[in-house]
Amino acid sequence: MADKGLFIDTLPHDGVVTFLALVREKELKPKRNGGVYLHLVLADRTGELDAKIWDSPQETSALFDRDDIVKVRGTIELYHDRPQLIVQRIRRCEQGEFQEADFCPASDRDPDEMFAELRGFVESVADANLRVLLVSILEDADVAGSLKLAPAAMRVHHAFRSGLLQHTVSLCGLAEAIVRRYPRLNRDLLIAGAVLHDIGKVEELEVSRRLGYTTRGQLVGHVALGLEILERHTARLQGFPVELKTVLQHLIVSHHGELDKGALKQPMLPEALAISIMDLLDARLEQAWTLIDQAPKDEEWTVYAPSLGRQLYRWPQGEAARVFAGSPVAA
Amino acid sequence: MADKGLFIDTLPHDGVVTFLALVREKELKPKRNGGVYLHLVLADRTGELDAKIWDSPQETSALFDRDDIVKVRGTIELYHDRPQLIVQRIRRCEQGEFQEADFCPASDRDPDEMFAELRGFVESVADANLRVLLVSILEDADVAGSLKLAPAAMRVHHAFRSGLLQHTVSLCGLAEAIVRRYPRLNRDLLIAGAVLHDIGKVEELEVSRRLGYTTRGQLVGHVALGLEILERHTARLQGFPVELKTVLQHLIVSHHGELDKGALKQPMLPEALAISIMDLLDARLEQAWTLIDQAPKDEEWTVYAPSLGRQLYRWPQGEAARVFAGSPVAA
Amino acid sequence: MADKGLFIDTLPHDGVVTFLALVREKELKPKRNGGVYLHLVLADRTGELDAKIWDSPQETSALFDRDDIVKVRGTIELYHDRPQLIVQRIRRCEQGEFQEADFCPASDRDPDEMFAELRGFVESVADANLRVLLVSILEDADVAGSLKLAPAAMRVHHAFRSGLLQHTVSLCGLAEAIVRRYPRLNRDLLIAGAVLHDIGKVEELEVSRRLGYTTRGQLVGHVALGLEILERHTARLQGFPVELKTVLQHLIVSHHGELDKGALKQPMLPEALAISIMDLLDARLEQAWTLIDQAPKDEEWTVYAPSLGRQLYRWPQGEAARVFAGSPVAA
Amino acid sequence: MADKGLFIDTLPHDGVVTFLALVREKELKPKRNGGVYLHLVLADRTGELDAKIWDSPQETSALFDRDDIVKVRGTIELYHDRPQLIVQRIRRCEQGEFQEADFCPASDRDPDEMFAELRGFVESVADANLRVLLVSILEDADVAGSLKLAPAAMRVHHAFRSGLLQHTVSLCGLAEAIVRRYPRLNRDLLIAGAVLHDIGKVEELEVSRRLGYTTRGQLVGHVALGLEILERHTARLQGFPVELKTVLQHLIVSHHGELDKGALKQPMLPEALAISIMDLLDARLEQAWTLIDQAPKDEEWTVYAPSLGRQLYRWPQGEAARVFAGSPVAA
Amino acid sequence: MADKGLFIDTLPHDGVVTFLALVREKELKPKRNGGVYLHLVLADRTGELDAKIWDSPQETSALFDRDDIVKVRGTIELYHDRPQLIVQRIRRCEQGEFQEADFCPASDRDPDEMFAELRGFVESVADANLRVLLVSILEDADVAGSLKLAPAAMRVHHAFRSGLLQHTVSLCGLAEAIVRRYPRLNRDLLIAGAVLHDIGKVEELEVSRRLGYTTRGQLVGHVALGLEILERHTARLQGFPVELKTVLQHLIVSHHGELDKGALKQPMLPEALAISIMDLLDARLEQAWTLIDQAPKDEEWTVYAPSLGRQLYRWPQGEAARVFAGSPVAA
Amino acid sequence: MADKGLFIDTLPHDGVVTFLALVREKELKPKRNGGVYLHLVLADRTGELDAKIWDSPQETSALFDRDDIVKVRGTIELYHDRPQLIVQRIRRCEQGEFQEADFCPASDRDPDEMFAELRGFVESVADANLRVLLVSILEDADVAGSLKLAPAAMRVHHAFRSGLLQHTVSLCGLAEAIVRRYPRLNRDLLIAGAVLHDIGKVEELEVSRRLGYTTRGQLVGHVALGLEILERHTARLQGFPVELKTVLQHLIVSHHGELDKGALKQPMLPEALAISIMDLLDARLEQAWTLIDQAPKDEEWTVYAPSLGRQLYRWPQGEAARVFAGSPVAA
């Protein structure tokens, strides 16, 4: 494996540097005095940098594509007060030379470990029909492969590689905690709801180095795609009770809570209410801490988050936490 | 077949009458001075009538059930200024003694004739994949049987036996007219949208003598049930193009137009826009004329329609139509 | 203590009965042939019954008031097909002759026990300032007395005696469960939010035998009344940090989540988001099970709940639960 | 007529060119080293180009105005990677030297031909009062002149020269198709609604080379301006029935369908419902195809359309259309 | 003039009475034992009373119509605990025998006096064009006659005879007060806005003994009817400046403030903003005091007002006003 | 006091200038060829200007801070067609050398004079309890100091130094005018509402040279902060009637009118309705004239105001005002 070198947010503002980066944009542009040069935007999980290649731009451009990882060497300059890289050497890296996670935001947790944990939750389901169905879905190679990679959303929450899996596992654990406080809730249905409510996202969101909606995702959405996966698997299971399928469909179509937020039906079972609210809790907290962690250390407020319609307050961060005099209030 | 006798809206306000009716309500009630009597609500497609049975109420009650058709003979009286029937004879009618259509509102058109017309539209679809799919759905006994009976809605529009079929056929005809005006529209997709957009209603609405939602209908809704039918049939067709399935799913999930009206996605194809708007046009016009026809002859305004949030104006009805002096403005 | 006698929902439909009841309505009405009679509506926690007193109505009326508990003896009759009581003897009961809980719905749990549990949560708060403040509020006789009696709402959820206390204690327990799943959350703030978010309801809702808004409650609301209680107690505590007061005020003013639902500010701290969502979860689940338990045993659906805009589905209740073949799905 | 020369979207990126263009912007700007130069934005219906005049800028500036058509000769250069024109010769063109349609987007159809078609529809109206009224409006020089030029909207749909007329004629044709499917609809009223619903736009939108609202349009809007035109013409017609005027006013004030979309009244006649929905259909389809046609050939999606709140899907365009294997699905 | 006799809210509950009343309802109903009787609802501005005529019902019914004023003599009885009148003598009253104001709620102020005051405001307008226009409208017999009688609304505010005139005059006075505080406001436009904003109500609301919408009112609304009146009068005035007409039209179409409240345009002039807000103030205060005055003396709260979505608080009424110890806070 | 020198909007586009300015931004930036320069944004109440310091940038940067007032001398140049200042001399000004009002927008009126006027209104309150309370608040140094400086809003209306005080005094005057037209309104409550409704803004908005929300303002808002001030002062007054406090709290929590606009309760008293509507009137008119005065002289329309969702029309400004021929319509 090649050395990643410096991350973009730690690069100096001048001098010669060597590092690995993702090619986010690549374009031949005309020079003022004729001829062309190659313009790049390089990126890793810490930021982006403009780059220019003056020599043999067309030949160089043929060596790699957008979304490739490259090893690059060049000189940093300031241009219009922003740093840019004048490239001297660049080459495409092969699979194995780098770690995917260095180039796009990813879950802190290992996908295989999370998948095993999810498998454990599914196997703990008491009802045989339901357990067999959920195992069938997790063993579906199309689903499992994507589930390990997919984000839970483009932007709002868990918007990183394996975010969907992390959100799903987190909801299973939350379900366990909630059912202990409210023992009338049916644990099996809560686990099923945690696994199924967003399962259509394995087809809705692209799992390449570039987060994005698939065409099916944009035209049909993860609710309908989740129903499709459910239908495919229940159709294979002889004698799967239609009443149970109906309830599972209900958990999927109701999990957004209200019609104007994308639900086809409002939640009509205590378990459907619980899934919908737990989903909100997990999504909001993950989003909140991401915003808080991304804010500069000395800022009291995060950036404005359009999906929330507000900024978040970072108290009690750092020194201000001492308001809680002499006691361990903040983590 | 027994003689239906008078329809309820033409019964005299006194005297002895004999006629056939649907038993909408049946209840044993205590008499003031002890003992019980049998209280009925009788109905046909023209209205309702209270009835009382004083003799042998318990034995008589055992002879028929709610939703049965009965032949009844009795005397009409006024009670609290409203007519009621004092029953002297009553018996359950057998299948064959009556016409279903006399007892609940039904389409003016013959279901088999409409189904044949629909079949014709489906067979005119040019694309082979799409034609085979639609034929497969119409030949599905579970679908076809219900489609001939189901209403298109509980209340708002086409709320009568075979209303769904009538609405579907009407949309096919409208599609044909629209595609002639806008030849860039894809006729095949418009026909497919007309057939599929509400197809889930065959499982959403009960097709007995009493309009009502099924449990599946209430929990899952006709959009998800329509997706299920589509999935079932595309799964059977080898090599059905996933791009085409995606577009058909889009037509189903987008046909309510806006999220807060029950769409999962806004229409994103010209054909999806057209289906959604044509659906609105056909539903609104049917509803409008039903309201207008139900209003008393000399009323300028219909009753208030909660689903529209308004009354409708009946002009130019009857004499007022002469405003259009000397010309054939109104039908 | 006097014997309660039969509850109203188990009274026979004729014969002589003796039982204790709350006087919900009391009115002298003119008889058709001159003179007056006394009309009552009697109630207990199971239902209501009309009653009439023909003898000495005016003298009898002077013996008790609306909202008194009375011991009554009389004969049940049917009138317009509904039972009513013709009273022969009636007298006002004294405090000690009856149990309050028989006459209005109340929490299943003992208020003192719940209060002790709440006290335990408050004493476990790590931050000294916050702990002293919360203890100060719970030791405030005006607050504590009402807190043991007040409902959490007029209608929607926990709409019974001690409902506010039950909701508060439930949220504290939920906070503990949530903080274990999300250890970045500040446990002290969650406990504080659970205790304070609805504390103004001790002045908003009347805690007599008749649930109702106080004048202050209707004009000012529990958010502002909660702020007032907080201000009163922080003013007494020397050197209470204004930053901490600000955060507590924020928890109160933001707990309804959105402006159009009664929040002055959207939640801007992870803990404020959590409080707002946990509040929703506890309220919705309590409301759901109340609706489910009130529905007749064989009904698949609850009544329509206007505050939810829907009916709830009671599955898997009773026999239908066997769909989950051979496994303990439902409690 | 002068030769138009190349359209802006086909100009080379260097070399000397001569062509006709509209002057969209014109401004004298200070040079860095003192003195001024003349900055222009040139446009035709295919795009825009920056231009600079270094010699005699003030004298040249006096030769033409914003919104004039000019004949220009100069050298194309790249500046900040964008092409710009260094002007050597420029002169104002006279009426007759150019075709208006080359310089702003315009209907594909000839205005006079469309106007004749509209006249035909109006003359086919059966009711004499209505026919005379509509003819009177079309013969009003103020109306007719503008109607031939005005767009139907600033941005959303038919946002081009003669767009209003094209939309009006299209609706008349659609009315004819619809009335054939729904013969209870009054054809006269549909034609009247098509002609009148947007007639106020002849005063709302400016019909110069620059689409824009008039002051009257912005302060009063096309609904009120349409009512004004209707009032002016009915006032001239002796004995025009007030009932008919009322219905025509209703068609105008209700055609936006809902109050929050600009209707003063919801549609209350079947014909008013139909006009409002047909208007939506024609507007949406025109807008959809314009978006689709403006998108680059290989893009699956159009740009985001703010007025629709979505992107549109361009399927089945080009090769992807072969999904419909072997059949003529797409035009 | 005949003596009105007792008002309905002061009638005794038994005995023989003679008084004048409005016939609100009149219907022949079948008697239980055959034959018919005449059922009436009698009314005056203080309330309603059921009445029955047993003798010669058909002949008697022919003597008067709904909405006539009658002189009636009969015996009061209690029926189902409500008083009713058994009529012995009844006859139609002629114009001149009674005062209109006794039979429907009416303004406290004399219409002619208010009209004179309004005339004074109009004549004080400084701009000649505007003054001539407003005078022309007030001298239009169709307008003036209705203006003296029409209510300002069916229910919400000034819902009584001459309410529109009272509201208009009140706004003129308010305009004068406001312009003194904000001298940049144009007094002429404020007076014009006060007079014109609701002028269409003279055709929208019926000015008979029964408040109600006219057909034109329901189909077209007072905004469009006001524009029509304005157009009719400006058309008669040679050289009336179109800019001024435009601003007046703007005042009319914008006075509801927001599109979803019935405005075609939001107010875009300071004077239009002021008219819209002053209109709200005058309407809300009149409505508030009506609600407060209608509530029983000892009630702290008024009835729930659906148009406001709330009850109003009556403090400081009566004794409670002493809270303001020793000072004249309440009128 | 130093001479302010030219205001920024009157500076020449070249030559040497000397003037006083506020330092809005200050940043050391790298030069292209190595080393750094000091970049400033200078401002006064008329506008902003970029400035660069090439000599001894680091030493110079240490001499003053952001938000200081400086005296600066330099040469104006055009850079990218915009003027900038090359600084030759710069020094920090001391308090006393300048007038605060020159550097940020401020009320036209003197704060002390307005405060005295407000004091006069407060002393005219008839009710002793209320008068003592209001005086107590105005004598609270924390309140009074901020009240003289605070703006009434960040952007929407009265967004300038002492704007809150100006708005408060203006509402008191308006209250006086309104109470004269509607004598049933309680003058004391109107004055109290004018003083208290926005009083929390003294802690919500920062009163430095930079308008901005405080942390408390953003987390808690001026409604809750106003309640806190009220509670602090009523707690000090022995025997202040709780009924009166409740009404004052109601005026504060209801003054935004509707829940979705930030009210906790809708106004339920005539005086609360009046306060809420008068507040709207004063805010809208101030905002309207500010927009109108900021627009260029010959523009018919103001800029688009996002908080209003519209542009405003500037008629009748300047020459167009002559439409009102021969009469003094516009100020």
What topology emerges from the helices and strands here?
6 copies of one chain form a homohexamer.
Chain A: E1 15-30, E2 36-44, E3 47-53, H1 57-61, E4 69-79, E5 82-92, H2 111-123, H3 128-139, H4 141-149, H5 163-181, H6 187-196, H7 201-204, E6 205-207, E7 211-213, H8 215-236, H9 242-254, H10 270-294
Parallel strand pairs in A: 3-5
Antiparallel strand pairs in A: 1-2, 1-4, 2-3, 4-5, 6-7
Helix pairs in contact in A: 2-5, 5-6, 5-10, 6-10, 8-9
Order of helices and strands of chain A: EEEHEEHHHHHHEEHHH
Approximately what portion of the residues of chain A adopt beta-strand conformation?
15-25%
Oligomer: homohexamer
- Poorly predicted regions of chain A are 325-331
* Estimated helix fraction of chain A: 25-40%
Provide the residue-averaged pLDDT of chain A: 88
